[in-house]
Amino acid sequence: MKLRNMMYASLFAAIVGALGILPPLTLPISPVPITAQTLGVMLAGAILGARYGALSLGIFVALVAFGVPLLSGGRGGFGVLVGPGGGYILSWPIAAFVIGSLVERYWNKMNTARFILFNIIGGILLVYASGVTYLSFATGIPWTTAAFQALIYVPGDVTKAVIAGMIAMQIKKAYPLINKPIEHKKAA
């Protein structure tokens, strides 16, 4: 692992933490607050790729587990990870990995629409599947009720997917951090 890649992974962990400075928006229908931090999850996967995107969010989740108050509202500690929103947070490294894997696989065909689509797949669908399931388990409410409550997050998360997609496309054009795949020449 190159020092440069480790620094980028740490930088994105810090970016996700910095997005936690924005205060959480708590709604009466769900114990899970709306935050800006999933924007960082999407950016980490789309810009760093699978391995380093997942590493950056793994670092972030580990810091939160050890009590560093990096989550929106100054939250941190193992208790947050086993609380109602824990499934969302614990899915972030996996989400970054999935987004990064899709981006790497289609690197030569990437455009803004694909970045947005991959952010929706990994950063919304996967995170919601994990978060809703965990919320249902942690609170004892039916899965369908938890899923219905999560619908309130969709407009904001789609907006974050679009923003992350546009940023990732600009970075791909200007200063790509993902190594381009080696194309093998066909034998003549």
Automatic annotation (TrEMBL):
In terms of domain of life, where is this protein from? Answer: Bacteria
Q: Which Pfam families match?
A: BioY
UniProt subcellular location = Cell membrane
Q: Which Gene3D superfamilies does this UniProt record tie to the protein? A: 1.10.1760.20
The family database entries (InterPro entries) matched by this protein are listed as: BioY (IPR003784)
Q: Which residues cross the membrane?
A: 52-71, 78-103, 115-137
Which keywords does the record carry? Cell membrane, Membrane, Transmembrane, Transmembrane helix, Transport
Family, per entry:
Belongs to the BioY family.
Name of this protein: Biotin transporter
Species of origin reads Halalkalibacter alkalisediminis
Upper classification of the source organism reads: Bacteria, Bacillati, Bacillota, Bacilli, Bacillales
